[in-house]
Design a protein that fits this description.
The protein is an alpha+beta fold. It has helices spanning 44-50, 282-299, 336-344, 361-377, 383-391, 398-401, 415-432, 434-447, 455-466, 471-479; strands spanning 2-7, 73-85, 90-101, 108-111, 116-122, 125-126, 128-132, 135-139, 149-158, 163-164, 171-176, 181-184, 204-213, 217-218, 223-224, 229-231, 234-245, 254-255, 258-263, 269-274, 307-313, 319-321, 328-330, 353-354, 452-453. Among the domains are: 1-18 and 256-346, Neutral Protease, domain 2 (Orthogonal Bundle); 353-479, Orthogonal Bundle (Neutral Protease, domain 2). Strands 2, 3, 5, 6, 9, 13, 15, 16 and 17 form a 9-stranded mixed sheet that branches. A 6-stranded mixed sheet has the order 1-22-23-21-20-19, covered by helices on one side. Strand 20 (269-274), helix 2 and strand 21 (307-313) form a beta-alpha-beta unit. Helix 2 (282-299) packs across helix 3, helix 4 (361-377) crosses helix 7 and helix 7 (415-432) runs antiparallel to helix 10.
């Protein structure tokens, strides 16, 4: 993600939006058995005690964000049927969820902010439900056995409200616009428009059926399935993302858009869309997105998805987000540096996803360094020159006080995670040499395609490929709160 709230410049820096994710290993943890949400039936506490160990955790297990995400199940696919009216800002939705239990489940949670739930079924049988904050607590008619597949259907409606955080974190999630909605959800804004397991550690496939007033376009991840259908003054668009995707990357951005579709020179589907205000940027967005995607495929390995492109909406978000297959640019024409950043995320962050937010440098440091590689490729400033310009900051500069290898929950998207994260990669490149470094990037992507990654795994692979002991380098650049002096 890149943002103009800090600076939309040669180095894209995120203004983040605080959220949570948890380690996948803790998904099966049982939740508390004595806490009953407001509005629960009189026997709920007794039921909770009877089913101790069978209640899915209300958080996924990240100690930095203990209440985010949910335990006890893994989602395989979301089937979202959505109808939105911009004039009234009313959303009607039916969320179908296909999941697998990682423990016996007598009760489990879904993340959902606001919106009124009308009905919940589990395996086609009516289920009890209650609300507690941003949690939808579901009690199925029968206990779901461990390792069994199950389905959930939630019918809901209301006016989606975006997450509005402190000034340095901004607004994210489902954001209404004059003609539709700008939907950019990092880190935990998916819950503002559909119920689910809202954290990167539980990726899933997505089907979207989005109905909007005739004349508007609905954009989502992946590719269109068939042609849009119009009836009764409404048009329905069906999109499908068949590759695993973190919930914060899901979008249903809609409004008036002009589209250009085709293929990159390497044959990858390319879809660019712009609000009419940015009509003059349509061709450049399409062309640059194609060229950069094809180039990154030679540097990072084969493109992991079935389509590429980008969207410019007329909403002054001041930031960009790497929505899977459709990076979103909020209210500005992106330069090739920012496009390079967001498209690099398709490998680093989208295909390879973090399981803990503290490892965010694996997304943002890599995408920032990709900007420097693009500059080098274009014959502009070399990565070495950009590295040196940042390294010239004095020893008391803020960047040296924030080690990027441990993103802080209260300042998750600090610029150090981006810039010093990128500098870490350049220091590594200098230490192990170009052949080993670029082999490392391709191997890293190939080994973990569509999966999850940690800093420890990257360090281990770097040492394996280079044949060098690298603890001192990574400790100095990622974990020490002072300016590194050797690498």
């Amino acid at each position: 993600m890149a943002s103009g709230r800090l600076a939309i410049a040669a180095t894209a820096v995120l203004v983040g939006t605080l959220g949570t994710v948890g380690c996948s290993a803790s998904r099966g943890e049982s939740g508390p058995t004595s806490v009953v949400a407001d509005g629960a039936s009189p026997g709920a506490a007794d039921s909770a005690r009877r089913h101790a160990g069978r209640i899915g955790a209300p958080g996924i297990g990240d100690p930095d964000f203990p209440t985010d995400g949910n335990g006890g199940y893994d989602v395989d696919r979301y089937r979202l049927k959505l109808d939105y009216r911009p004039d009234t800002r009313h959303l009607s939705g039916v969320a179908g969820i296909e999941a697998k239990a990682t423990q016996d489940l007598a009760r489990f949670n879904l993340d959902l902010s606001g919106l009124k739930v009308g009905q919940v079924t589990v395996n086609d049988a009516a289920a009890q439900f209650q609300r507690s904050g941003n949690e939808l607590i579901v009690t199925p008619a029968k206990i779901i056995p461990e390792k069994s597949a199950f389905t959930v259907k939630v019918t809901y409606a209301g006016e989606p409200k975006p997450v509005r955080d402190s000034p340095n974190l901004g607004t994210y999630g489902f954001i209404p616009t004059a003609d539709g909605a700008f939907v950019a959800c990092e880190p935990n804004g998916a819950k503002t428009w559909f119920p689910g397991n809202d954290h990167p550690a539980d990726k899933a496939r997505y089907d979207f059926e989005i109905t909007v007033p005739e004349g508007l376009t609905a954009l989502a991840n992946g590719e269109l399935v068939g042609e849009p259908s119009t009836a009764g003054g409404k048009t329905t668009f069906t999109w499908r993302e068949s590759h695993p995707m973190a919930s914060y990357l899901a979008t249903m951005t809609l409004g008036k858009f002009e589209l250009r579709q085709g293929k990159t020179a390497a044959g990858i589907k390319n879809i660019a869309a712009v609000d009419p205000r940015y009509q003059s940027s349509l061709d450049s967005l399409y062309t640059l997105s194609g060229k950069i995607t094809d180039y990154w495929s030679t540097v990072f390995g084969p493109y992991p998805f079935s389509s590429t492109g980008g969207v410019i909406d007329d909403f002054a978000a001041g930031y960009a987000l790497e929505n899977q297959t459709k990076p979103m640019y909020g209210g500005f024409k992106p330069g090739d540096d920012i496009i390079a950043h967001e498209l690099a995320h398709q490998w680093f962050g989208d295909s390879l996803s973090i399981t803990r937010w503290k490892d965010l440098w694996l997304n943002e440091g890599f995408a920032t360094y990709a900007e420097w590689l693009w500059s080098e490729h274009k014959g502009n400033a070399t990565a070495e020159r950009i590295f040196r310009s940042h390294y010239s900051a004095g020893a008391d500069a803020a960047i040296w006080k924030y080690p990027p290898g441990r993103a802080k929950p209260e300042d998750l998207f600090n610029s150090s995670v981006y810039t010093r994260g990128g500098m870490t990669l350049h220091a590594l490149r200098q230490r192990i040499g170009d052949p080993a470094f670029f082999t490392l990037l391709k191997t890293w992507n190939a080994d973990h395609k569509y999966g999850y990654v940690t800093t420890e795994e990257f360090v281990a692979l770097a040492e394996k490929i280079s044949g060098k002991q690298l603890d001192d380098l990574f400790n100095a650049w990622l974990f020490t709160p002072k300016k590194p002096t050797t690498w």
